[in-house]
Amino acid sequence: MPDTGNPYADTRGMYVIHNVFRREFALLPALIEAAGAADEERLRVVADHVRLLCGLLHHHHSAEDAVLWPLLLTRAPWEIDPVVRLAEGHHQVIDTLLTEVAERLDAWHDGAADDGGQVLALVLRRLAVAAREHMALEERLVLPLVERHIFNSEWEQMVQLSAAGIAPENLVFVVGMVMYEDGAEMIPPMIPVSMIEAAPKEYAAYCERVHGTSTPLRSAELIIGTPFVGAASEVTRLAEMVR
Known about the structure:
single chain, mainly alpha, 0% strand, globular
C-alpha cells in the first residue's frame, strides 16, 4: 500500500479481508451438504478447506485480541468501551463455534457423523452469520475509531501477526483468495511480484478442486437469506432443534 503520510492506520485492507471471510464461510455449508457420503478423497479436500478457513479466521481474531482491543481501550474515548467489549464478545462466540466446527468436522470426515453432516452444515451457517454480524460491527463502529487512534506501525504489527498464521505452502493461493474481489492493491509490498502474478491462477485451480468452478460466487452475491447462508431466524430455529 502506498505511504500517504498519514501516521494513523490505513484500514482499507480490512474491508478486503472481511469480504474474503464473507465469501468463503458463506460457501462452506453447501460444500458439506453436497459432499454427503462422497469418496474419501472428496471428503478430505472439503475438510482440509474448512480447517484452513477456520485457522485463518482464528489467527485474524487472535491478532486483534492481542493488539487492537487493548490499544483502543486505553486511547479511544471511554464511550466506545461497550463497542470494544461487544466486539470481544463476538470473538468469544465465534471461537466457540470454531471449536464446535472442529469437533463435528472430525466426526464427519471420519464417517462417524450419523446425520451425514447436516448438523455440521448448520453450525457452519451459524458461524457464517456470526462472522458477518461481527464484521459489520467492525466496519461501522470500530474501523473509524482505528483510523483516529491507532498508528499505522501498530496496525501493521497486527496485520503481520495475523499473516504469521498462514502456512508457507498456502501463501500463494491465499494471496489469490484476497485478490479475487479486486484486492490486488491491498497486497503488502513485501510480497514478491512473481507471487502476486501467480496467485490468481493458484486460487482459480484451488477453487476448481474445492468448489468445482474457478469463479465461485463473490461476497456481494452471498447474502443472508440465500441457500448458502440461510435467514438468521431459520438458523436460530434450527439451532434450537439440535441442542
